[in-house]
Design a protein that fits this description.
Elements lengths: L1 H23 L3 E2 L15 E2 L2 H16 L4 H23 L3 H17 L6 E3 L6 E3 L4 E6 L2 E6 H19 L7 H19 L9 H19 L8 H18 L4 H7 L1 H16 L12 H7 L5 H19 L4 H33 L1
Length: 355
């Protein structure tokens, strides 16, 4: 528990320092000047959550974990995403630049050898290998092997999760709570399925990251004193993906514990494209918005719903096989899609009826 406790304490103590720094520099998200339909807060709040989480992760990891090529690559990506998050906190940079930074972060860790060489076969025993074909490249006088399918799969998996998890931070306490819970289960599963070619301690890192997000939750829960921002949102998806890979390519497990944000993201992307809009630009059509606007839920209830769902799905992930996980993911998708479709119909029908 020490990795979790130390990381939690560092993040908890770092948060008020970041809040004070951001406020002194007037780096706040003010709904009076930053008018957007997706905004749910009503008072100026600093973002800066990425810096809080990164402080807990980086300091605790360098203190407790053995330093190897994997850790160095992960820390380099963490710094890159944190700096990108700070720039976005200050300047609201274009989503394309954020996407590029996320892609570079994924390339760094995949280039260090963190890839998905196989996935479990849901239709029978054994695994599906992704380590063929292989490209041999000469880089700086050394021969490097590139597992084409494995590396492409890993890059897409990491970048996708970074973006879709980042979208689920619309209300106070939502993101750090469900991400922290999900990472605890990834840590538990890491003890069962260690499949790491180095001495890298995957389980300890999972608990370190979980502690950092729970430290942010102390200050982000309603009424929030600091927001996660892009920094914390991207780090959440990044670590969920990387730790899933390091713990033995637990792709189905990760998709299961974040099934609700994933379903929300897929529906949102399809809805925006169908409406002729860019899938990168935000709106007020996410699941947390509909729970508030259609069902009348408050922010605390929405956050607790996300936590509870992550907890239940995490517990199930400890006992279900791959096929069971895929069926659970499919059922979750069907429920979320059904609710969002109904909420969309209610919104449109309600407007037509009122006019």
């Amino acid at each position: 528990m020490w990795p979790f406790i130390i990381s939690f304490l560092i993040s908890t103590l770092a948060a008020p320092l970041v809040i004070q720094w951001y406020r002194r520099r007037h780096w706040v998200d003010d709904p009076a000047t930053h008018r957007h339909v997706k905004v749910t807060h009503q008072q100026p709040v600093p973002r800066g959550g990425g810096l809080v989480v990164a402080a807990g992760i980086v300091l605790t990891s360098l203190l407790l974990l053995p330093i190897d090529s994997y850790l160095l690559a992960i820390m380099a990506s963490t710094v890159l995403l944190t700096v990108t998050g700070i720039l976005d906190d200050i300047y609201d940079i274009h989503p394309g630049w954020r996407l590029a930074a996320g892609l570079l972060a994924a390339l760094i860790v995949v280039g260090a050898g963190i890839g998905i060489a196989y996935v479990s076969n849901p239709f029978g025993p054994g695994v599906i290998h992704l380590d063929q074909p292989v490209w041999q490249l000469q880089i700086l006088g050394e021969t490097r092997s590139v597992w084409v399918l494995a590396d492409l799969f890993a890059i897409v998996f990491i970048v996708w999760n970074m973006n879709i998890v980042n979208w689920s931070k619309g209300v106070d306490g939502q993101l750090p709570g469900f991400v922290g819970i999900a990472l605890v289960f990834v840590g538990i599963l890491s003890y069962r399925f260690i499949d790491d070619p180095t001495s890298f301690n995957t389980a300890h890192l999972a608990f370190i990251v979980a502690g950092a997000f729970f430290g942010l939750l102390v200050w982000n829960f309603y009424p929030q004193k600091i927001m996660p921002g892009y920094g914390a949102g991207s780090l959440a998806g990044f670590y969920l993906s990387v730790l899933a890979i390091l713990s033995g390519a637990k792709v189905a497990t990760t998709l299961m514990v974040i099934a609700i944000p994933t379903a929300d993201a897929i529906f949102t992307i399809a809805r925006r494209i169908r409406a002729g809009k860019s899938p990168l630009w935000g709106d007020r059509g996410h699941l947390h918005h509909k729970l508030m606007d259609v069902l009348g839920w408050g922010k605390r209830r929405v956050a607790v719903f996300y936590w509870s769902a992550s907890l239940v799905l995490g517990i199930l992930s400890l006992y279900l096989n791959t096929m069971g996980k895929l069926l659970t993911i499919g059922l979750t998708f069907a429920i979320v899609f059904g609710f969002l479709s109904w909420a969309k119909w209610v919104s449109v029908y309600g407007k037509q009826k009122s006019t």
